[in-house]
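Lab meeting, item 3. Inverse folding demo.
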């Protein structure tokens, strides 16, 4: 069943941007400049840092926040895995009452100039706008191995979980307040970046669109542990689906913990519009309650 938002106007803030960070001292100020250029006064940036950050990134974020009230430094030394960093940022944005929550990586692997496309999709009525590298207009700038791994992850997910997105493994995505609360209420099981796939699977029956993005990945490889975990969880979800009621209400196990690697975009995947003039791929779910309007290309 497609679910409509019931809590989008919970608070006074419009958009909260969640950015987990590690050692970004060389780029953090220019990144914040680029993000804030697309924000309004009632928007916020939640920069999440923990003990993985060994350089002056935290100090630079705190200094920037004194000059711009929209920037908040979230120090989370309790984080033990990359998923903890994202979920801490999600909770901060929800607690602040943000209507929409945009998640993106630091280090310019996700491009701030693409933020307006996500805002346009949310204004058009999307509950979940999912960044997608393999849509028309999207791109993966990195190793061929990483690109093929992401493509394979999406292919297998769509094959075994009956999902329909062109990218089931990417980050850079925007949630309505209600959609993200739904994710937090259910939780994820992955300790690595398969949590992005779990989220997209969780929101497959919401009003979603795919936004073509350009992903710039400096890391050529992915360790065996994330790949093994992704395959194991994919099999587990497929078995749960085989025995599930038609409501598709799958509750994931509580969040696991491991060493934290913010900024690695492991197992990120695909994207796309099918010739839609607005550069997004409209949700073609089985039981849509309404069609989403498409944002104009100029956004």
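The presenter then showed the designed sequence:
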């Amino acid at each position: 069943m497609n679910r409509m938002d019931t809590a989008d106007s919970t608070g006074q803030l419009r958009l909260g941007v969640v950015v987990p960070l590690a050692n970004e001292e060389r780029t953090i100020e220019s990144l914040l400049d680029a993000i804030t250029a697309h924000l309004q006064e009632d928007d916020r940036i939640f920069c999440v840092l923990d003990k993985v950050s060994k350089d002056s990134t935290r100090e630079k974020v705190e200094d920037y926040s004194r000059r711009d009230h929209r920037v908040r430094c979230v120090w989370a030394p309790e984080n033990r895995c990359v998923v903890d960093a994202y979920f801490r940022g999600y909770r901060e944005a929800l607690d602040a009452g943000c209507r929409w929550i945009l998640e993106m990586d630091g280090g310019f692997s996700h491009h701030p100039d693409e933020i307006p496309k996500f805002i346009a999709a949310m204004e058009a009525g999307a509950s979940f706008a999912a960044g997608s590298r393999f849509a028309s207009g999207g791109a993966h700038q990195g190793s061929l191995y990483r690109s093929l791994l992401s493509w394979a992850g999406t292919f297998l997910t769509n094959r075994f979980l009956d999902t329909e997105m062109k990218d089931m493994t990417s980050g850079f995505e925007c949630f309505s307040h209600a959609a993200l609360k739904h994710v937090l209420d259910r939780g994820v099981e992955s300790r690595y970046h398969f949590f992005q796939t779990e989220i997209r699977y969780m929101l497959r029956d919401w009003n979603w669109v795919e936004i073509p993005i350009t992903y710039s990945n400096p890391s050529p490889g992915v360790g065996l542990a994330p790949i093994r975990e992704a395959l194991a969880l994919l099999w587990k979800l497929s078995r749960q689906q085989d025995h599930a009621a038609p409501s598709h209400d799958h509750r994931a196990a509580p969040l696991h913990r491991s060493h934290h690697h913010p900024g690695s975009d492991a197992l990120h995947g695909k994207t796309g519009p099918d010739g839609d003039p607005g550069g997004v791929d409209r949700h073609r779910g089985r039981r849509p309650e309404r069609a989403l309007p498409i944002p104009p290309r100029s956004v």
